[in-house]
Specification:
CATH superfamily of the largest domain: Dihydrodipicolinate Reductase, domain 2
Bound molecules: 6-O-phosphono-beta-D-glucopyranose
CATH architecture of the largest domain: 2-Layer Sandwich
Structural class: alpha/beta
Strand content: 15-25%
CATH topology of the largest domain: Dihydrodipicolinate Reductase, domain 2
Distance between the termini: 47 Å
Radius of gyration: 24 Å
Number of strands: 16
Helix content: 25-40%
Length: about 500
């Protein structure tokens, strides 16, 4: 029996309706919401694209996507027929302003059918360069003026640099209120990422020691084993720093470093995050080499398979200088974090698919224990594993059973798989539901996006100014270039991968 309140009637237009994002992520997420009875009683989805589809062939394509990519691949249980009746396809040329009347007509028809004015959501699942043009053409439709019910959803990358992000913000805000604009960063929809706030602020245990007095440093690794997966064209305009650090990783830093919010109001949370971004020490162009390292993968082997180097990937220039790996050392200049390094690294074709946040505490004094007891002495460490393992591990010292005082680090584990049924909603389910409900907490505000660009611009500029001389500089199945090790070894640290449980 349904115990929750569903969002109000909604009409969702997906620009890029025949594209990959909708196929792999959006429709599977919407279908899961439907199965879990979160979709509004009255709703419709209109996929918009240039390719020719009938409603029937479009639905068949989407079902195929569900069978491949949904967390409930096998789930048919008769609900698909019911769900798919709400999906239609609108073939239109998004560059032709005259065709936008079709959208206005659909809204009018649905309004009559639903008996009320629905939320009208425009989802931009298109190449980033198309967003400004589509937004401009949506403006005059007269639907957007309704600040309560109309929303526009913009995927990352939000701009290509600070200036283009600023211009895109200006353009969107000339037609929509900030409250109507949902800038997606899908990391914020991940269960394990949202749980960081619960861990920090719903427990008395961590917050008192969550600062420079007890924390030695913080690390974030977001590693992937895949290469650019046919997205060479996009990646050539991006690179790891733009693709992962400007958004996902800086957002993770905000979750770890923000001050306690006084409420879960969308603006309160986002204000606290912007405070973190504003306090991140600006790295100058001249110093970029001290704080940031870039890499690019060569050809090689990964899980027994021969893989091409980045420069041999489709749609990639044979002498490309794009970074497929980036590592940065950040500092946050405020009372809580003064002089605590935040090391981050991300890359393609690395040794494992893993996103983890490590909070490394300072060592406890060990003078009271005999020398042999402290041979395996380790400082406490909290590891938040975002994916693919979803768990939190707290490492502490324990006495090994026996007559002598020998100490060993051991792990206390909270695992989603063991604690729950292991069928957590996907990020896009959470985010799409929030959009329908009008809750912008997990979305990026304009000032957040621009503050994040300001942080990475000097590094990007320094890298553009000085082309790398050693690319490609790391092999597939490694942890990136050697310089990344040196970056943090200078402070006496080394990169931490997810430790096996119960041992060092
Ligand atoms: C996307 C990047 O934002 O995040 C991709 O554009 C990357 O390059 C992806 O592969 C990683 O997402 P996840 O959820 O698999 O960690």
């Amino acid at each position: 029996m349904q115990t929750h309140k569903r969002p109000p009637a909604s009409l969702l237009f997906i620009f890029g309706g025949s594209g990959d994002l909708n196929y792999r992520k959006l429709t599977p997420a919407l279908y899961n919401l439907f199965i879990d009875e979160w979709i509004p009683e009255k709703f419709d989805i209109v996929g918009i694209g240039r390719s020719a589809f009938t409603d029937e062939s479009y639905r068949a394509k989407l079902l195929d996507g569900i069978q491949q990519f949904s967390r409930r691949k096998e789930e048919q249980n008769g609900k698909w027929q019911e769900f798919s009746r709400h999906i239609s396809y609108l073939q239109m040329d998004a560059e032709n302003e005259d065709e936008y009347k079709k959208i206005a007509d659909i809204v009018k028809t649905k309004e009559q059918e639903f008996g009320s004015h629905p939320n009208v959501i425009f989802y931009m699942a298109v190449a980033p360069q198309l967003v400004p043009d589509i937004a401009k053409k949506l403006g005059p439709l007269n639907i957007c003026a309704d600040t309560k019910c109309t929303r526009i959803v913009v995927e990352k990358p939000f701009g290509h640099d600070l200036q283009s992000a600023h211009e895109l913000n200006k353009l969107l805000m000339s037609m929509f209120d900030e409250a109507q604009i949902y800038r997606i960063d899908h990391y914020l929809g991940k269960e394990t990422v949202q749980n960081i706030l619960a861990l920090r602020f719903a427990n008395a245990l961590f917050e008192p020691i969550w600062n420079k007095n007890y924390i030695d440093h913080v690390q974030i690794t977001a590693a992937e084993t895949v290469g650019v997966e046919g997205r060479g064209g996009y990646y050539e305009t991006s690179g790891a720093l733009r693709d992962m650090v400007q958004n996902h990783i800086l957002q993770l830093i905000c979750m770890v470093a923000m001050e306690a919010p006084v409420s879960f109001d969308a603006d309160e949370i986002r204000n606290k995050k912007v405070d973190v971004l504003n306090a991140i020490r600006k790295i100058t162009k001249e110093d970029a080499h001290i704080y940031a390292v870039r890499g690019q993968y060569s050809e090689g082997w990964i899980t027994g398979e021969k893989v091409p180097g980045y420069r041999q990937e489709k749609s990639v220039s044979p002498d490309s200088n794009i970074d497929t790996f980036a590592a940065v050392k950040f500092y946050i200049d405020n009372w809580r974090w003064q002089d605590v390094p935040f090391y981050v690294r991300t890359g393609k074709r690395l040794h494992g698919k893993t996103t983890i946040i490590t909070i490394q505490f300072k060592p406890a004094p060990n003078y009271a224990f005999p020398e042999e007891a402290s041979e395996t002495w380790r400082a406490n460490r909290l590891t938040i594993s975002i994916q693919p393992e979803m768990d939190i591990r707290l490492r502490f010292q324990a006495k090994r059973p026996g007559q002598s005082m020998i100490l060993n680090p051991v792990d206390m584990l909270f695992s989603y798989k063991d604690a729950y049924d292991g069928n957590e909603p996907e990020a896009y389910e959470t985010l799409l539901l929030d959009i329908m409900e009008g809750n912008a907490t997990l979305f990026m505000r304009s000032d957040q996006v621009e503050a994040a660009w300001k942080i990475i611009m000097p590094i990007l500029e320094a890298w553009e100014l000085r082309p790398p001389v050693d690319f490609p500089n790391y092999a597939p199945d490694s942890w990136g270039p050697e310089d990344a090790e040196a970056l943090i070894a200078r402070n006496g640290h080394n990169w931490i991968t997810l430790p096996p449980l119960h041992q060092e």
